[in-house]
Amino acid sequence: MPGNRGRSVSAWPKMSTLFKAQEKVKVVYNAVGFKEAVPVSKPPGEFWIVSVGRLVPWKGMATLIRVAGNLRSEYPGLRLKILGDGPELKALQKSVQELGLAGIADLRGNVARDQTLGFIAAADLFILNSGYEGLSHTLLEVAHAGRPILASNKGGNPEVVIPGQTGELFPFEDGAAIEKITREVIAGVRQLSRALSGPEREAFFTKFSLPTMVAETRLLLERLCRH
């Protein structure tokens, strides 16, 4: 098989310097097996910010903890739920203690997928403050659950987070922007997303389905074999 053509899981690596001959790269999205989730139980009066990811510096979890600290006096019901594990865990736990956020910022470690989906379904706001992403399956699952998304404008995030439809974008690690938008969401003066339904919803999520991935991969392989 010729080595001068390739497949990309999102438009971002295709447009980046990872591929010099962009016209020879075909975007074929990885499939996501969407599941309906039952929201985990949430105490009345709480506003949940949920984030999911490996605890590494480029996931920006430390910034989310600082944002929670800055907003806690204004919104006593605010809770930050971080799902994931990684080398930054101890440093993040220390930050939570130093900022007096025990009971407000909750580092839950690794969580099974069904429970993760339950937290996503219960989220009032999902935030992904990531400096690097190919195509985030977590963002797709949040969009599928119809929860508001606030995500960094890095990597493949803009292919999932469409302003006015599935969420809003902000510059990576821009804590001030995260705080501002979160305040507006809590106050009810800003709606980040609207429910996708009917043909619009079907068209959006079909791009990330298994049949679409298989069909487009097959077409790509057939084209490669003809060259």
From TrEMBL:
The leader peptide range reads none
Q: Where is the Glycosyl transferase family domain?
A: 41-185
InterPro entries, per this entry?
A: Glyco_trans_1
The uppermost taxa in this organism's lineage are:
Bacteria, Candidatus Magasanikiibacteriota
Q: Which family does it belong to?
A: Belongs to the glycosyltransferase group 1 family. Glycosyltransferase 4 subfamily.
Q: Which GO terms describe its molecular function?
A: glycosyltransferase activity
Which source organism? Candidatus Magasanikbacteria bacterium GW2011_GWA2_56_11
PANTHER family membership: COLANIC ACID BIOSYNTHESIS GLYCOSYLTRANSFERASE WCAL-RELATED (PTHR12526:SF640), GLYCOSYLTRANSFERASE (PTHR12526)
> Per UniProt, which keywords does this protein have?
Glycosyltransferase, Transferase
Keyword set includes Glycosyltransferase: yes
**Name used for this protein in its record:** Sugar transferase, PEP-CTERM/EpsH1 system associated
> Known Pfam families for this protein?
Glycos_transf_1
